[in-house]
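A further point concerns the way the authors explain their paired sequence and structure data. Nothing conveys this as quickly as seeing an actual entry. An entry of this sort, consisting of the sequence and the corresponding backbone structure tokens, reads as follows:
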Amino acid sequence: MKLLWLQSGGCGGCTMSLLCSSARDLPGLLAGAGIELAWHPSLSEATGDAVRALLAEFESGRTALDLLCVEGSLLTGPAGSGRFHMLSGTGRAMIDWVRSLAARARYTLAVGTCAAYGGITAAGLNPAGAVGLQYDGEQRGGLLGADYRSAAGLPVINVAGCPTHPDWVTDTLIALALGRFAEADLDALGRPRFYADQLVHHGCTRNEFYEFKASAETPGDLGCMMEHLGCKGTQAHADCNIRPWNGLGSCTNGGYPCISCTEPGFESPGHPFGLTPKVAGIPIGLPSDMPKAWFVALAALSKSATPERVRRNSVVEAPVLAPATRRTRLK
């Protein structure tokens, strides 16, 4: 299978993340699944006439395009012309190339939240007219339209994240190459379910603090960051704390609240990322599966039962109390 990777309106962060894959030989990993990286603007040697010839082969259908990966949002401005982003040396707007190639591709993947939903590039007034491949924020449509289907009959596969985890990309590509990926494997927002059916909350090292509602008060504290510091880990769909970056890292492990970067519109939450908005002292962003009344009752009960160790450790940068030593044999 031939893979073509295009970089549109973004920072290149998803490619940087991909280079941190646990696979020491990324091209070898793909080749093992029968995938040939035909061209990537940052990783391939080919330039100029060679690239233009390759694109023409794919566009004409003379060479089959199996996997089209687009990184970065699609810049439709000004006035829908796409001329804010021309593909260098071709005289054509990137959005023109993407539309044409997506019509040929067996599978089309939006790599990163920018390509999926518009992302950071679409924040604020969005003068560049940035949209995702098949979404404009939460609304289906985007560049290719709500009814777009690739040659294999699938909508755009949104490997969302800012940036994506490298394994989310490689696992999706390999599953497609092995014929083990179908539309049923996508969630309601077009994300691969193998990671989007999880929550960032799952596996978080701060879960004991969450259980007792022992909250961090300032950045650097060890406690749960949901109540005061804007963490959306109980709502964000991703397996970041089950499948950490580079074997051990995640935002919450590093002391930063989850900002739900796999979701459309995360870039403009309406409040500072590090602050939890509240009404009558109750966080607006409650766990996705829990009614508000239940959460309030559970929080009150949990706080009344918080062990002194958990309470004191939640508001410091390093533990000051260790768990008690007790015999654990059952009688």
Observations:
- The chain is about 25% helix and 10% strand.
